[in-house]
Amino acid sequence: MKSQMMTKVNFKSIFKQITAMLISICIIGQGSSAFAMQSPKQQREEFIDYLKEEQERYKTLFDQEALLEELDYDTDRIIDFVSNKVVYQAYDGVLRGAKGTLIGRAGNSHDQAITLAGMLKDAGLEAEILVGKLTTEQADELNLTIASPEFSELKDI
User: Model-level pTM?
Assistant: First the structure.
């Protein structure tokens, strides 16, 4: 019975210690010697303010609406973001969905399509996902069409 009591972990105490260490690292490390003179309550409040500032700074990593604002709801910028900032990962089916793909910045073609369509719809545009199979000849023709100068002109319409 005694050994069970000794192995019991006081998570609240550990959390307080970790919080104090993080406060020291984040705020005192930035040169605020006045911080050390504050009461624990003031330190917590200052640390919470610091975390809120960090959360706001990195908001576009997790918040689709904030990301769309940053991209000015611009179709080309949204497409460019998904094309260039979301890494392709090969797996079957829909695994992450739009939110998981956006947060992880990775997904297969299905998850990327869902993410792109969702972002375009949230930006007030029409978008739909079409699924089909192409023959090798059709795929070659499509690739040539996309690479043609005429396609570039159509994109601007």
Answer: 0.56
pLDDT surpasses 60 at 27: no
Average model confidence (pLDDT) across the chain: 79
Residues 69 and 53 in one domain: no
Indicate if 52 and 86 belong to the same structural domain: no
Q: Provide the token pair at 64.
A: 């689709």
Domain holding 44, by residue range, is 2-57
How far apart CA 85 and CA 106 sit, in angstroms, is 8
Quick check: is 137 in a domain?
Answer: no
DSSP string computed for the chain: -HHHHHH---HHHHHHHHHHHHHHHHTGGGT-HHHHTS-HHHHHHHHHHHHHHHHHHTGGGT-HHHHHHHTTT-HHHHHHHHHHHSEE---SS--SHHHHHHHHTEE-HHHHHHHHHHHHHHTT-----------HHHHHHHHHHHHSHHHHHHHT-
